[in-house]
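Records of this kind hold a single protein each, on a pair of labelled lines. With that in mind, the following record should read easily:
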Amino acid sequence: MPKVTIIGNTTWGNTLGTLLGNNGVTVTLWARSESEAEQLNHEKHSYASTNDIAEATDGTELVIVAVPSQKFRENITHIKHHLNNRTILMSAAKGLEVDSGKRMSQIIAEEVPPLKKQICVLSGPNLAKEIAQGLPAASVLAAQDIIIAKNAKDLLRSPRFLIFTTDDVVGVELGGALKNIIALGAGMIDGLGLGDNAKAAFVALSWNEVVSLGLALGAKKDTFYGLAGLGDLIATCASTLSRNHYVGYQLAKGRSLAEISTSMPQVAEGVTTTLAVHQLTKKLSLEAPIAKIIHDILFQNKPATELIASFSKAIKD
């Protein structure tokens, strides 16, 4: 029986653990503390939990890292000495590292060079709470070596969780990360009560910017119009389960970013991704005017009410 290791006692990590466990896969979730592991085991999930990283990774075929993007490198550094040369490493995070602007697969390749050909990434319209409830969903697994993606797919797929494969790692990661910036703006528009027409226009025109940025960074155009792009965008901009939409909505209602972030038990990846994209586009001399608008609202204290006016100006320019 295959063994999979989940890194991260997160909503997504626990959901993937349950999904795999229900598929008959032996799953061990690594938690940071003994108390976390004991609590998870007490809840009697379809997977086991431990805070012993050596135990968690012993004999594993696949390691899924399901932690926030800003904690990703730290976790890879912690586990890398416990991996063998056959281990497949999967990123289930949707963000960019703030300081470097790097994607999660790039971080893995830097930290664990011997396994760089065994990296894959998972992304798509995957609201964890719906999947945990057994509702149907679909996702995309990307790897430079498509065989790696297909091997991981065989472990994860189920009748209610369909998985497609691609070799466009860049496009899948950027689609998952950059749509969160748009979801922040969509939430602001909803919070301002500007209606679905305004939101649809904002989302559509913003997505053009994402596609242009993705192509400049080496992604394939078709990826942005599939599950890992447009599909994920729709779910994140429309669902009340979206953390990024929630942050944008609350900002439009007058709450500060600090207050909103402190009150949330989980991370809204779009906040740090907006900062990373702002720095990355400046470094590479790329244009991303809509991302800059969102950045200025988040980090320059501009009111959310300026979104539409600034957005309209950016499009004209």
The chain has 15 helices and eight strands. The chain has a mean pLDDT of 94.
